[in-house]
Amino acid sequence: MTRVRTTFVFLFLAAVAVAAAAQTAQKQKPAATSSGKHAVVTSGDLKWGPAPPSLPAGAEAAVVDGDPTQPGPFVMRAKFPAGYRVPPHWHPTDENVTIISGSFSVGTGDKFDEASMKTLGPGDFAHMPKQMHHYAMAKEAATIQIHGSGPFAITYVNASDDPRKKTATESK
Fold first, then answer.
1. Domain map (residue ranges) of the chain
2. CA pair distance 105, 85, nearest whole angstrom
3. CATH class of residue range 43-170
4. Residue 78 and residue 51 in contact, taking contact as beta carbons nearer than 8 Å
5. 58 in the Ramachandran plot: left (φ > 0), alpha (ψ -120 to 50) or beta?
6. What number is the average pLDDT over the span 2-7?
7. E-assigned strands of 27-102?
8. 96-143 confidence digits (pLDDT tens)
9. What predicted TM-score, i.e. pTM, was given to this entire model?
10. Are 80 and 147 in contact (CB under 8 A)?
């Protein structure tokens, strides 16, 4: 009888320990979209370079966190010179933009219409749901921050606006 009681107590304690360990592991496990790493990035830490070829020439970009080319969360920044334009396009994922400096204008639709654009300044925010056709312009030099879930991709409404195709055509 004592042996049965001891076995029962042991099994009960083992079950409680397994349940507690599973609960602790679940709380500590990062979300599927999180790298689970702590990140502190100063503006001086950013490594600026030419923006990806999917954007018109003249922009600079720096990845703040994550990898925009891979599934999962990312944060990146872009610098645009005055007069810089991004023709109508869309993304397969939501795009979130916060203006860091300068002014940045956004509009929606299939045709670039400067008169219908909303101009945003430092601290302002824009959200473009996936597949929403939109366009943008930096009326003055601007720095923006983009965050979302990757992979970040861009498809131009008018294929002739795609700088990747222009480069391919010009190099032939």
1. 1-30, 43-170
2. 9
3. mainly beta
4. yes
5. left
6. 40
7. 49-50, 60-66, 72-80, 84-90, 95-101
8. 999 999 999 999 999 999 999 999 999 999 999 999 999 999 999 999
9. 0.75
10. no
